[in-house]
Amino acid sequence: MRTYHAKPGEVEREWLLVDATDMVLGRLASQVAHILKGKHKPRYTPHVDTGDFVVVVNAGKIRLTGNKMASKSRYRYSGYPGGLKEMPIATMLERQPERVIELAVKGMLPKNTLGRAMGKKLKVYAGPEHPHQAQQPREITLEG
Fold first, then answer.
1. Which of 6, 15, 25, 56 could form a disulfide linkage to 45, CB 3.0–4.6 angstroms apart?
2. Is pLDDT above 90 for 144?
3. CA 50 – CA 117 distance, rounded (Å)
4. How far apart are the C-alpha atoms of 72 and 61, rounded to whole Å?
C-alpha cells in the first residue's frame, strides 16, 4: 500500500456558499479555514492546495460572544513612533464587515505561500448578493 499524494493539476475544486447570519465569528472562521485547506476531503495533502472556493454572504450579521464587541480591537502599526492605530471591532463591523471575517480566517491559515493561495479562494460579501452565480455555488450549513 502506497501513500497517495494529490498533484496540483488533478485537484477538483467546488464552490461553496455560506450564510453567516447569526453565526459566531470564531466558529465560522475555523470551519471556513478547514474547507479552504481541503481537510474535509479524503484526498487532503498538506503540501498541496486541495481546498474549495468559499463564498460568505451576510458578513454584517455575524455575532461575537461575551463582551468581545466592546473589548476586542484590531491594531495596525506603521513602524513610526506613535504610529499604532486601534479600531474597535464594533466600528470595523459597521464600516467593513467583510474585513472582519477575512482577517479571522487569515489568522487560521498557514503563514506561507500556500496559505496565501488558500486565502485567495475566500470571497466575503456584507449583504446577501454576490457576483459568483455563474460558478453555481452549492449552499452549505456550518455548525455553530
1. 6
2. no
3. 11
4. 17
CATH topology for the 14-65+97-135 domain: Ribosomal Protein L13p; Chain: A; (3.90.1180)
- 30-89 pLDDT per residue, tens: 999 999 999 999 999 999 999 999 999 999 999 999 999 999 999 999 999 999 999 999
The pair phi, psi for residue 19, each rounded to 5°, is: -95, 120
57 C-beta neighbours (distance < 10 Å), count: 22
Domain boundaries, the chain: 14-65+97-135
| 5/8 Cα distance (integer angstroms) | 10
Backbone φ and ψ for 30, nearest 5 degrees, come out as: -70, -40
Is this structure's pTM higher than 0.90? yes
